[in-house]
Amino acid sequence: MMRRLLPDQAAVAEVRGELTEPPLFPEEEALVARSVAGRRREFATGRRCARLALAALGFAAAPLPSGPRGEPCWPPGVVGAISHCDGYRVAAAARATDLAALGVDAEPAAPLPDGILEAVSLPEERAALTRLGGAVPGVPWDRLLFSAKESVYKVWFPLARRPLGFDQARLRFTPEPGAAASVRGSFSARLLVPVPPGFAETVGGAVLRGRWLVGEGMVLTALAPPARPAGPGAGARAAADPIVAGVTESATPPGPPPSFP
Known about the structure:
The protein is 30% helix and 23% strand. The two termini are 19 Å apart. The longest helix has 20 residues, at 37-56. Helix 6 (197-203) crosses helix 7. The protein has helices at residues 26-31, 37-56, 116-120, 123-135, 141-160, 197-203, 234-240, and strands at 11-16, 78-85, 88-95, 103-108, 169-176, 182-191, 207-215, 218-223.
């Protein structure tokens, strides 16, 4: 299903259930040595999916360690993301010359637990979800919002190298006509914090655009901004953007940032 949301430049490996082979590298085993069995299984399958995606790009199997916030460390010249939910694992990877970043997330197609929506959304987002629920019933819009913010974070953090709170990006969703068994659409995410100039030059500004799909009991979201060639005017364009220059659109304090799988 994630394949439907990503451009051809991205290699995608997704599986229902678990992959038991090949074994993890010792460096990876050490990362989850003290975790519960379920966490070890989902971590291992995620890493195996990542290696399948990398193999499709021509990369030999190698350890994928984790960074300081749990993010997977991809080989030089590669961008990628891993996600999992109950019974489903997915990894996507691409060459950095093709895509500037990748963010993918998978969630069960069920409403968020009580109280979570208020913690991960802005008031205007909640109002928009209410309207969307009336226009397109049957979609767990609160879960979709959460998933999309997770995907945004996975694009943001590897480039910005700083946390991003749930209340530091404002999302808007656009449904598209779909088959009876699924609903899909697009979304935009406006970043409400000062954007590092390098980030703006890499992804093209303070607004990210992604796609979403709800079907087969899951909510899937993905962002894949294309790589942008560096040009002599890139720095000037970044300075001219009021968000990049340091003027934010929101005075709300940062909330707890999403986390990597």
